[in-house]
Amino acid sequence: MFALAVTDPRWHDQMLSDPPTGLVNFWTPTPWKVQLKPGSRWGFMLKSPIRRIGGFGSLVTYEEVTVEHAWERWGLANGVQSLADFRSRIIGFASRRSSAPIIGNDPTIGCVLLDACVFLPADQQPTPEELGLSFQPQIVKWKGFEGELHLAFEDILPKASAGFKLVDRDGANWEQRRTKKRIAQGLFRRDVLEAYGRQCAATGTACEQVLEAAHIQPFVNLKSNHVQNGIAFRRDVHCLFDAGLLTIRPDYTIQVSPYLTATPYKEMEGRKLALPASLGAAPAAAAISYHRSQVFRSGETSDSK
After folding, report:
1. What DSSP state is assigned to residue 110?
2. Is 13 helix (H, G, I), strand (E, B) or coil?
3. Using CA atoms in the order 43, 218, 207, 197, what is the torsion angle rounded to 10 degrees?
4. Considering the entire predicted model, what is its pTM?
């Protein structure tokens, strides 16, 4: 079973432009008493006049907390820029839709907590009718459906059971590649972090808010999102890896670029990566070879060889 829930386009726009790491709070201005099994998909039904499905997340849990508590716990992952903005939106929604007025400045709200979220740009958003779903305009909360919510882009995603192969460039420009990368980044991050036990493979850091899924062969298209083309890294390590200042040897030890010699990161030289428990999720040799030869900045030039 899955659900489609009416979604404020402002919440969706912020999530699309700056997707948070970790849990996302799909908040409701008044408690909705959501009862779905953990892992069920929660679809984002952009409200009228848009009436298109803007993506989905995987349900973790449902809680009821105060506005201030929600801001303290999830911050920007509430889809608002500040506590003041949060309060303003909630009071505005509740005053228009609820027969029970909000009392005080810190009301209790519903919190549908999601992970592995997908946020679709406008040109990728299907209507419910295109998916064979009936979602009447008078629905102002959510509606449950039997079966599974499956969107077209998922047909392109690589299967974990098949080994990773290097992806040929598809000719898309940088902006198109960035848009494609964002579409399924939440799913890729979930798979990679689960494979690595939600710890940085290089440092052992277990704080999920700073963990990211790094592509070994840089992202080309959705076929790049194979778990064997990913490593769980702390955010700073990810940045260095993408910049070619760190790479991985065939024996899964870290090689540090000479450009980092004068930094604390030089201490990572020769450190062994913590690999996934499942060998089927370990970095593909072809991906590592590509990064070493095409991305890593070894400090050597053709003149010095």
Report:
1. E
2. helix
3. 80
4. 0.82
